[in-house]
Design goal:
Helices cover about 35% and strands about 20% of the residues. It is of the alpha/beta class.
Length: about 300
């Protein structure tokens, strides 16, 4: 296992709160900012909101800044902790980028409950790679997690997502992502990502291997689990490899629910960018699972929940 050490120090914030328009009045949530130091990297952490503790873990190539809209919506009903993975956003770059290294980042943040002052075990909400990190952490530390909400990730695929036919396309996608981040890196913004195209491609291949063994991880978890999944992770094109990837994505979830029928699953008519393009709907689905007060999930064209299959 990765050795986890950390120290947390206060940092002044440029903006110590967020406005929440509710019921005709403005509620301002105080947001505090910290840093966690471990494994040679510095991880920025933000905490704000009210209610049940919730830790939001971003995915590969996404940052706290990217998830700002979703975070603000969740802070209306939760005490939300967010952070940047190594090489992302305001976190420092690292000499290695691997699943275990990112898992150690999540562990380091969660190992600071005294400094963060969480009153109880948090719900972990993970997006994409962050969902896989949440499942692995919960399987290793089951008593420290109150529940999981997994957004378009942690899918125990029945076969590799990336085959030999897909390699060239995924290399091109990784190159495009790295190139698109160049301007953010030059400016040093909160949305920058330091990973190279080779780093991104290597992680995508590693995730295929990790997801092949995810069912064993789920068997070790006894807290409530909910999933919010995109119906078209690869887009809605009927050509090329997109139909195969979309079918495989659904097949992985169906495989999981057959073995673990207690897992609640909601499908949004969206692609993998659902946390950015459908933040209000994703937030309401999360809240329906974590607070029990959001009522029936927002219905979108093509949305299905596990209840529709009964």
């Amino acid at each position: 296992m990765t050795t986890r050490t950390g120290a947390i120090t206060g940092m002044p914030s440029g903006d110590d709160g967020e406005r929440d328009e509710r019921g005709g009045r403005t509620v301002r949530h105080r947001v505090r900012h910290f840093t966690v130091h471990h494994d040679g990297v510095t991880i920025p952490v933000s905490r704000g909101g009210r209610g049940r503790p919730l830790v939001l873990c971003p995915g590969l190539n996404s940052t706290q800044a990217d998830l700002h809209e979703l975070t603000g919506l969740l802070r209306r009903d939760h005490d939300v902790v967010t952070f940047d993975l190594r090489g992302h956003g305001l976190a420092s770059a690292a000499d290695r980028y691997s699943f275990d290294a990112f898992l150690s980042d999540l562990g380091a943040v969660l190992a600071e409950p005294g400094c963060l002052g969480l009153p109880s075990a948090p719900v972990l909400v993970g997006y994409s790679l962050g969902a896989d990190l949440a499942v692995h952490h919960a399987s290793e530390h089951p008593d420290t997690v109150a529940g999981l909400v997994l957004i378009d990730g942690a899918n125990p695929l029945p076969e590799p997502f990336i085959t030999a036919v897909d390699l060239a396309g995924f290399r091109t996608m990784a190159e495009d992502l790295a190139t698109g981040q160049e301007a953010e890196r030059i400016r040093g913004t909160a949305r920058q990502v330091s990973l190279t195209a080779q780093d991104i491609h290597g992680l995508n291949l590693e995730m295929d291997v990790i997801r092949s063994g995810l069912l064993d991880r789920y068997r070790k978890i006894d807290c409530p689990i909910s999933m919010v999944m995109s119906s078209a992770i690869a887009g809605d094109s009927g050509e090329g490899r997109a139909p195969r990837h979309n079918r495989l994505w659904r097949a992985g979830v169906e495989r999981l629910v057959r073995e673990q029928p207690h897992i609640s699953t909601s499908w949004l008519d969206a692609d993998h960018r659902l946390v950015f393009t459908h933040a209000p709907e994703v937030a309401e689905l999360i809240l329906s699972h974590t607070t029990g007060s959001a009522g029936r999930p927002v219905e979108l064209a093509g949305e299905r929940t596990d209840a529709d299959d009964r």
